[in-house]
């Protein structure tokens, strides 16, 4: 039984796939047990739910799954909220690339630790860039 936390991104359109592509570029390889589910305005949430549940089953290697979604309260996050299970499948809204990289970097840690690292990574990644002095 592996101890690696699975990661599922549930987001608008191709955003999740783009995040995975970027993270793979930064890390030099496409990470295992990382998947995404893109949701469009044409999708029926009730039809997508079983797909999300299948992905969770695949991604859970015994240590749990972290679900990352983009905008809290939007359709993708509402779908994500329906697959959460305390201590097994946890969720964070507001996913960005620093958050995903941080979650991937610490995914051998317990789920609760990965959540903390992902949140701090996502927040620390937000910074106003200083002007360069000539």
TrEMBL record:
Its EC number is 2.7.1.191. Residues 4-126 form the PTS EIIA type-4 domain. One of its GO terms (cellular component) is cytoplasm. One of its GO terms (molecular function) is kinase activity. One of its GO terms (biological process) is phosphoenolpyruvate-dependent sugar phosphotransferase system. Signal peptide: none annotated. This is PTS system mannose-specific EIIAB component.
């Amino acid at each position: 039984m592996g101890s690696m936390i699975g990661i599922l991104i549930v987001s608008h359109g191709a955003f999740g796939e783009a995040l995975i592509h970027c993270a793979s570029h930064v890390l030099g390889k496409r990470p295992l047990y990382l998947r995404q589910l893109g949701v469009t305005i044409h999708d029926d949430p009730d039809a997508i739910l079983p797909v999300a549940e299948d992905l969770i089953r695949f991604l859970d290697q015994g240590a749990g799954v972290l679900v990352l979604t983009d905008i809290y309260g939007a359709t993708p996050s509402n779908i994500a909220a329906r697959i959460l299970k305390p201590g097994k499948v946890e969720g964070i809204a507001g996913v960005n690339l620093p958050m995903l990289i941080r979650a991937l970097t610490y995914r051998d840690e317990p789920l609760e630790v990965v959540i903390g690292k992902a949140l701090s990574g996502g927040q620390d990644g937000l910074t106003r860039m200083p002007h360069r002095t000539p």
